Structures are given as C-alpha cells and as structure tokens.
Amino acid sequence: MKQSATRVILLLCLILHFLATSAQQEDPNWEKQWCIADQQTPDDVLQQALSWACGPGGANCTMIEPNKSCYFPNNVKDHASYAFNSYWQKFKKQGGSCYFNAAAMVTDLDPSHDSCHFEAVP
Ligand SMILES: *[C@@H]1O[C@H](CO)[C@@H](O)[C@H](O)[C@H]1NC(C)=O
Ligand SMILES: *[C@@H]1O[C@H](CO)[C@@H](O)[C@H](O)[C@H]1NC(C)=O
C-alpha cells in the first residue's frame, strides 16, 4: 500500500515538473505581433472597419477617444490600427483574425508611440 502511494506521488511530481518546464519554455520565445491598418487601404474602407471593430466587433476603443493617450494622431489610419489591434489581441485565441476585409495586416513592429500603448498578448 505504502509503496504504491509513494509511486503515485512520484508520478504526480514528474507530471508537475513536466508541466512547469514546458510552460517556462513557451514564455520567453513567443513573438510579439500587432494588427494594424494596411497603409494601402482607403480611408472610407478603414472607417467602416473601425466602426465595426469598436461597435459589434467588441474592440476596446477607449484610448482613441478625445483626450486619451491614443487620440493623437487623430486620423482614420491610426485609430483603425488601434481598434484592429485591440480586437485581434482580445479575440485571436477564439479565432478572431487580423483581416477586416483585407484592411488590416499583422506586423512585428510595435506601433506604440508616446504614451499610446498597443498591447500584444501571446
Ligand atoms: C478598455 O481599456 C481601458 C484602457 O486600457 C481600460 O481601462 C478599460 O478597463 C478597458 N475596458 C474594458 C471593457 O476592457
Ligand atoms: C480634454 O482636455 C482638456 C485639457 O486637458 C480639457 O479642457 C477638456 O475638457 C478635455 N475634454 C474631454 C472630453 O475630456
């Protein structure tokens, strides 16, 4: 009895150790990526995608409101980039894509500027 209990505990320790090390390995290596407006997309198309992202899309557009950190530069491309990124970071794990009818693109250059922070989550 005692011996099999020891074995179970040893096995549990092994599993825990394995889980801990595999979690550690994932962390430092993930590549940060952001979703931004494609420079080629016309403003009216971006505006539509922006309205969708901040409305039904469920992006958090607080920071592009007047007086917030990402309000400036106040133009459709920058605001759309913020909204696309917010949407993508929030929903990519559930299958949300950085697409917006081809108005968006993925980049590995951090679009953050001044006090405007673009988040990136694994
Ligand atoms: C939206 O973003 C702002 C600023 O990052 C944060 O304070 C707020 O809690 C967020 N709102 C939601 C609903 O996540
Ligand atoms: C924005 O900030 C300015 C000065 O910092 C202030 O006068 C104005 O009331 C603010 N507007 C809003 C909408 O909070």
Set out the fold topology.
Layout: H1 2-29, E1 34-37, H2 43-54, H3 76-91, E2 104-107
Antiparallel strand pairs: 1-2
Helix pairs in contact: 2-3
Give structural attributes:
122 residues; mainly alpha; two-stranded antiparallel ribbon; 46% helix; 7% strand; elongated; binds 2-acetamido-2-deoxy-beta-D-glucopyranose; cell membrane; lipoprotein; signal; GPI-anchor; X8_dom_prot
Lateral arrangement of strands in the main beta sheet: 1-2
Helix content bin: 40-55%
Rg computed from alpha carbons, rounded to a whole number of angstroms: 21 Å
Q: What's the domain count?
A: 2
Order of helical and strand elements: HEHHE
Attached small molecules = 2-acetamido-2-deoxy-beta-D-glucopyranose
Shape: elongated
Subcellular location: Cell membrane
InterPro entries: X8, X8_dom_prot
Protein name: X8 domain-containing protein
Pfam families: X8
Protein described:
This protein is mainly alpha-helical and 122 residues long. It has helices at 2-29, 43-54, 76-91; strands at 34-37, 104-107. It starts with a helix and ends in a 15-residue tail after the last strand. Bound molecules: 2-acetamido-2-deoxy-beta-D-glucopyranose (2 copies). One 2-acetamido-2-deoxy-beta-D-glucopyranose (NAG) is lined by residues 66-67. One 2-acetamido-2-deoxy-beta-D-glucopyranose binds at residues 60, 62-63. Residues 33-118 form the X8 domain. Pfam families: X8 (PF07983).
Give the structure's gist in a few sentences.
The chain is mainly alpha-helical and 122 residues long. The chain has helices spanning 2-29, 43-54, 76-91, and strands at 34-37, 104-107.
